[in-house]
Structure formats: structure tokens, C-alpha cells
Design a protein that fits this description.
mainly alpha; two-stranded antiparallel ribbon; 65% helix
């Protein structure tokens, strides 16, 4: 099957659950923002020299694919679970223990990977805003676990950036 199907030439796209919707809909904006997170995470993973960070990032990318499926679905059971949110919370707790307390604002960019992780953090905040807007227009459009996941993801990206830049 060719990547060029021409089915979107009139400004519509297919959702994971098969419905056709406008490419500029709030739903597409939401899962498109998560796709942007994955691009920033891909650059972070490619630039990191730390095997543990690379593995965490790859796991996050896979979880983000699940999140995109949730956001690209109508009337489907959410795939992101409490367990997934718990995984992020456990990683957050682990990194917080390993890092010195934060006493001032920091400027990211001491490492290429750190800069990409900060880009992923800001993309996660944007995706969270898009998902919130979508859920305000349709309460059933975004599962609670998806919202929690996005909120934890941005926190985790921040901590991964700090870890990458302080543990050289």
C-alpha cells in the first residue's frame, strides 16, 4: 500500500476507530501534539549516550503510540491504564531521589539530549492543553488516565533532562 493514498486531499483523515474527521479538528490536534512529543523524544534518544536514558525514552515512545491510539479513537475503551500512569510516577520518584533538590530555575541545553528532552517537555505541555480543550468540547473524548499520563509525561521529561545534564 502506498503512503500516498490521496484520501486526505479534501482535508479529512481517518481515525484509529475508522471514522473520518477534519484534519484540523481538536482530536487530530491532540494526537498530533503527542506525535510531536515522540519526534522530540526520538532526537533525545538518538543523542543520549546513557543506555538507561535511551531505554526509558524508547519505552515512553511506545507508550505515546498507545496514547495516540486513545486520542484517535471514538467510543473505544482507553488503552492507557492506571498502571501506565504508575510507571511514569515510579520513574519520577526514582529520578527525584537521584537528583539534587532544585533551588533555582535552570536553563536547559548543556547537552543535546537535554535540549531535546526539554523540547519534549514543552510539547507534552502543549499536548496536555490540546487534550484539555478536546475534553472540554466533548467530556467523553479524553479518558482521565490519558490526561494524567500527559501531565506526568511533561514532569518526567523535565527530570530526564536534569538527569541527562547533571550526570555527565
Amino acid at each position: 500500500m502506498s503512503i500516498c493514498t490521496k484520501t486526505g486531499d479534501k482535508g479529512e483523515t481517518s481515525l484509529y476507530t475508522g471514522q473520518r474527521i477534519a484534519k484540523n479538528s481538536l482530536r487530530v490536534e491532540s494526537y498530533g501534539s503527542v506525535d510531536e512529543i515522540n519526534s522530540a523524544l526520538a532526537m533525545a534518544r538518538a543523542s543520549s549516550g546513557k543506555p538507561r536514558i535511551k531505554k526509558i525514552i524508547k519505552d515512553l515512545q511506545q507508550m505515546n503510540m498507545t496514547l495516540m491510539a486513545d486520542l484517535a479513537s471514538i467510543d473505544a475503551k482507553p488503552r492507557i491504564t492506571e498502571k501506565d500512569v504508575g510507571i511514569l510516577e515510579d520513574l519520577i520518584a526514582e529520578l527525584e531521589k537521584a537528583l539534587p533538590p532544585l533551588k533555582a530555575f535552570i536553563i536547559p541545553g548543556d547537552t543535546l539530549c537535554g535540549a531535546f528532552l526539554d523540547s519534549a517537555r514543552t510539547a507534552a505541555r502543549r499536548a496536555e492543553r490540546r487534550a484539555l480543550t478536546l475534553s472540554q468540547s466533548d467530556e467523553s473524548a479524553v479518558a482521565l488516565q490519558d490526561k494524567l499520563f500527559l501531565n506526568r509525561l511533561s514532569d518526567l521529561c523535565f527530570l530526564l533532562m536534569r538527569f541527562e545534564e547533571t550526570e555527565k
